[in-house]
Amino acid sequence: MATIDTARPLTTDELARLDAFWRAANYLSVGQIYLLDNPLLREPLTLEHIKPRLLGHWGTTPGLNFIYTHMNRVIARDDLSAIYVAGPGHGGPGLVASTWLEGSYSELYPNISRDEEGMRALFRQFSFPGGIPSHVAPETPGSIHEGGELGYALAHAYGAVLDNPELLVTCVVGDGEAETGPLAASWHSNKFINPARDGAVLPILHLNGYKIANPTVLSRISHDELDALMTGYGYRPWFVEGHEPEAMHQAMAAALDEITAEIRRIQDAAREGGTTERPRWPMIVLRTPKGWTGPAEVDGLPVEGTFRAHQVPLSKLAENPEHVRMLEAWMRSYRPHELFDEHGRPRADVLAGVPEGERRMGANPHANGGLLLRDLRLPDFRDYAIDVATPGAHSSEATRVLGEWLRGVARDNPETFRVFGPDETASNRLGAVIEESGRAWMAERLPTDDHVSPGGRVMEVLSEHLCQGWLEGYLLTGRHGVFNSYEAFIHIVDSMFNQHAKWLKSTRQIPWRRPVASLNYLLSSHVWRQDHNGFSHQDPGFIDHVVNKKAEIIRVYLPPDANCLLSVADHCLRSRHYVNVVVAGKQPSLDYLTMDEAIAHCTRGIGIWDWASSDNGGEPDVVLGCAGDIPTLESVAAAAILRERLPELKVRVVNVVDLMRLQDETEHPHGLSHGLFDALFTTDKPVIFAYHGYPWLIHRLTYRRANHHNLHVRGYKEEGTTTTPFDMVMLNDMDRYHLVMDVIDRVPGLGQRAALLRQEMVDERLHIRAYTREHGDDPAAVRDWVWPGAST
Amino acid sequence: MATIDTARPLTTDELARLDAFWRAANYLSVGQIYLLDNPLLREPLTLEHIKPRLLGHWGTTPGLNFIYTHMNRVIARDDLSAIYVAGPGHGGPGLVASTWLEGSYSELYPNISRDEEGMRALFRQFSFPGGIPSHVAPETPGSIHEGGELGYALAHAYGAVLDNPELLVTCVVGDGEAETGPLAASWHSNKFINPARDGAVLPILHLNGYKIANPTVLSRISHDELDALMTGYGYRPWFVEGHEPEAMHQAMAAALDEITAEIRRIQDAAREGGTTERPRWPMIVLRTPKGWTGPAEVDGLPVEGTFRAHQVPLSKLAENPEHVRMLEAWMRSYRPHELFDEHGRPRADVLAGVPEGERRMGANPHANGGLLLRDLRLPDFRDYAIDVATPGAHSSEATRVLGEWLRGVARDNPETFRVFGPDETASNRLGAVIEESGRAWMAERLPTDDHVSPGGRVMEVLSEHLCQGWLEGYLLTGRHGVFNSYEAFIHIVDSMFNQHAKWLKSTRQIPWRRPVASLNYLLSSHVWRQDHNGFSHQDPGFIDHVVNKKAEIIRVYLPPDANCLLSVADHCLRSRHYVNVVVAGKQPSLDYLTMDEAIAHCTRGIGIWDWASSDNGGEPDVVLGCAGDIPTLESVAAAAILRERLPELKVRVVNVVDLMRLQDETEHPHGLSHGLFDALFTTDKPVIFAYHGYPWLIHRLTYRRANHHNLHVRGYKEEGTTTTPFDMVMLNDMDRYHLVMDVIDRVPGLGQRAALLRQEMVDERLHIRAYTREHGDDPAAVRDWVWPGAST
């Protein structure tokens, strides 16, 4: 623990100014929660001035305001570039109040002017239909973090400072949020921050003692334990604790004086002194009462300092006239006449210490990353193409091919592009990017380590939550990145994806928010090739989860081979404000398309593969649809069997790269018109569709299509174990032999030769199953399809 | 940090016996990874004896074996009841080896006998098609935890010891897993364990330094920082570090001697001395080389002690004859002839220190919780019924009604039932169960706290991960529970649900695994009534996620009122081996059914509500389907409008409680036959279906139905903000007026009166929207429908 300077760094004037800003912010916060009118309390408060529904969270707000006030002082003094991440985002009124005071709010929302009329509108709009959300939302100036679903504040903060050497992110961590898993892991982010190149995060653990109804864990362990915990996380904790405003102002100012100097020393040592040791970054433990400066007691029960201060301390005002009087007294306790002039404008004293222009935390461009976003310099992906003389004649590891291109991307964009992954980047065969960039690592290093250094830029930690949170912070501050993960475990961040998708949807509707780079998921080590890791590693359901979100935000790609993956990846890294989900295998897999063909195919997103079809461009008897590398392999193999054994049968193979093409054009911007869909899939012929994931998704996407009743989908139906790759497709009835059986079962009038072929397929499956059980591997005939040497 | 006793507690004989067991387990682990045959190395090893595909994870295995060996000593000595949770579950060969050695394996799998023939089968089956998974899986005796997806080991361990005062759970936390969020939060579980009533967890942080490719964070911070971290988490850490087997055996034995005594002292003080202070529980930091005792160097690169030991240290044996020789030397280094007799049976010395019967960790019944599971004593839920004289005449808060019944459940089952929730149990209006049971809390307590005590049994922490993990541990050891959560944030545990559903699916197929109690989710504070918290709190997609898993495991219920919720909850708490998802509101909501009607309706799971319909039991002109409390309210209201305004229109209202009734009977055990479905929804009439969640799920469930093309679904389409409850349904076009419009748009030939009504509905919506924007609340006419006083 650091010792608090017993000096009182603030002069009387400074203290008065800080306190005035804080009181003003608190006054405005209460006003937002309660008032419809009478914002300056020109007349005695009555029920008519009060909102019929009281929404909002007072408990955390005065603490958030206190921190904002004090950050302003050091920002203005040291000309810092700082932004504010409010983990307790439900303290929305606080951030709105402070940004209104500093002027940044009214610049973005001229209707909410910095005067009495604006104040009335400010109060009225809060948590009001047609107004603004109750949380620190995308609508809030200076925010990159909503804080509705708790746990991600600190990861966002760390993501924001990567490659932003001049940026300081003040991150308030509520003691409720601190109990979440993602936050508990996030403290260790300091092992990945290089003070020579990255900015600084100042975590402020705000202990106000209670959550909604319960005490908080970190407020109820001893001082020594908490000190040990923060020390163990690698920080130097400063404790600022109390409730008496004057003493607290002095203590907070003293702590921030020491801390800003310490951060400068750390950065100077790394930037000028060449130090590569991991520093012990400072952090603050701020302990204040919940609902600080609010009503101490209501209806005989203590409120300030208890869980009862969490939301609105005074409620049911219509039934309790006394509560109206208490509310008025509470608001007047901030002495509004000292804070606002006769026009409702903040007085000069209140604003004396406030930073100017883009130094205001509500106007810092880093919190509106689209303003700073620049295109990546992308190497021409065609230069990385695989030569494909004949479809299906040779194999590549698609992600390894992509890795070479990503190496180029990383090389050409050394300050604005990063790859994130939970210790799986090499396993996902993107090793080239690690060779180029190294892995970021500020903890101890040993000679046996591989590409691990303070200068590394690939972010690897065994926490999908941290990868996602860091990347979100990096993107929202105007940079680019890719998150690579094992497919099954990306579900770990389902809820983080939700919140980010909601953020993107909301910010599309806010004119001053500029588009940011898309969040790109590269899911490899996918369900069909986790045969060796078994059932727990087999889950293709992230796509289902993703497509529940707004169509304008969501893109899903299933490139069937390496060249298609290159084309898709280039497209994704150029795109803006989407979530792109790309699923691609890492195992050797057949190459089908030349680069030119791949570009054309991926641009269309869906298409007939003539070389695999036997309908000669005419009307087919059956359509084999496929999406995903393994389903494509099995479908192409099934088509080859049918071509050889039932040459009179006209088979059309349709491959889908862009999954949303299957949907109706009225449902998704990439959706096909019914005419185009019917041209591909016919209106009356059987369609046997092999899909990468859970089969019902294809039904969901296509149920409006004319030919939907003829659609038969194979996919993963939650059957798996530790076995061989081919056994995986067999277990789920998606293997080539079963697809042939499906065709024979659905095309009428095929006759006896087909019946015999069907029986042969059944026998072949039994034979392979028996061979696999005996030898522990797929038989050579199957392997030759799966691995190199196949021919069509 | 605790001081390691410098004494060497093991005699030479004891040490030799322990080392023999350890070597035997290591030998058997290597054998499983590599060998098809020649298990006792009777002849020189050749390629023919070696598996064609090498799968498995050696790196963590010798450490897991070491811990198993040493736990055996103290279990046998002190007659402890202990189970073993292996966080690094991919070290599967280790747990299989130890349970085979102790005999528990062969008792459950007689084909894998404890002799040479059995050893050959043991080796062959591992990670082999038709054999056993590579991880510590449901198939592994003594396991309650797979450890495939990392992060949950410690939460499972803590859940297992709740209300199990005699149980000790040794929980190995890998240093990779320790980086995950859920694990980082789990350390704080010690604040919720009451030594008077609960058992003990011994966490062992196993530092082997590397993950797949990267160093681990906790192995690369200083000793002092790690000591501070564990102290800060509230533990007394013991460090056992090294690689020389003899010294390590002595150090581990010394640590375990001290620790078992300390656990006894803690429990005695609480149970006999009445201490209610939170103890500092011991934990171990075990630092050993990754791949300990394996090849030090392969092909000139270091392996032991590096990330290269993570999976198979020696690979490509067919291409590298030298590797075959190295493998043989490695296996012989364990001196198998000293460990196994001529028949391949473990020698007496190896087994001398092994516990017997159910004390063996592979045979402890707590790890097969179904063996210990007993029915709950359930109070008659009919006694908690709401009186319903007329449908829709009065309102109840459904979860509050449920809370009273849960109070009774908690009262009558004080040692086998718990409620878990992330600080939302009171907010979800289940406060009665807190009044009955209190909240578990061993950290500091203050007078301002509410029902917080060491004796509390409701488990509340602001971490959905911990709630889920604790509950899983509690269920898997044979008890019962409910997890209540805000609906939107249950996505935080999507991936944990996945893994638990996979566990349930797998264990259904393992004869010796007995069914456990179902995992019951109660999702409240749902999408339609998070109007006040805004967009981030609005997500009904967990149901979509859940229904991807095996139908035999999954149940989804949407009770429309309080009596239905009681009936459903009673059913869920009686059920076995399912995941039950129940969505229910907490706000005042109309009561429709008497208890008898509710029981009949919930038993059928779907049915026509005659009192709300106007088809008089005949063929309707239109069907209004509904699932969920708010959709039901809006559908019933729409039906009432239609009855009044278009009395000649025959409207049928069909309410769905059990969502899976919509699916085909071939797809889900609860699925309706086509005949029954058609009888409800007709084959040719328009169906306007109002659904609680994302509308496309209803299409997915019904696309095989004859009348699917007439189905029009309203639901949440990701439109929301901070607004009023009625504005939420308006934003998503699911309000009563829009449903009336949908009916008019789809029923042909309704004439001019309908056209005028439609226009009236449009105007009414505009009016309400304007009123809400002006007054900040829904107009009284709408509120009267939503809140008490409505009549139909």
The quaternary structure here is homodimer
Largest contact between chains: A-B, 122 and 122 residues
CATH homologous superfamily label of the largest domain in chain A: Thiamin diphosphate (ThDP)-binding fold, Pyr/PP domains
Q: Please give the alpha-carbon distance between the first and last residues of chain A.
A: 70 Å
CATH class of the largest domain in chain A: Alpha Beta
Approximate shape of chain A:
elongated
Main beta sheet of chain A, described? 6 strands, parallel
**CATH architectural label of the largest domain in chain A:** 3-Layer(aba) Sandwich
Mean pLDDT of chain A: 95
Question: Can you give the helix content of chain A as a percent range?
Answer: 25-40%
- What name does CATH use for the topology of the largest domain in chain A? Rossmann fold
Uncertain regions spanning at least 5 consecutive residues of chain A: 786-792
**What fraction of the residues of chain A are assigned to beta strands by DSSP?**
5-15%
- The total number of structural domains of chain A is 3
What is the number of helical segments of chain A per DSSP (H or I, 4+ residues)?
26
Sequence of strands across the biggest β-sheet of chain A: 12-9-13-14-16-15
- Number of distinct beta strands of chain A: 22
- Cα radius of gyration of chain A in angstroms: 30 Å
Structural class of chain A comes to alpha/beta
Protein name (chains A, B): Probable phosphoketolase
Organism (chains A, B): Solirubrobacter ginsenosidimutans
GO molecular function, one term (chains A, B): aldehyde-lyase activity
Enzyme class (chains A, B): lyase
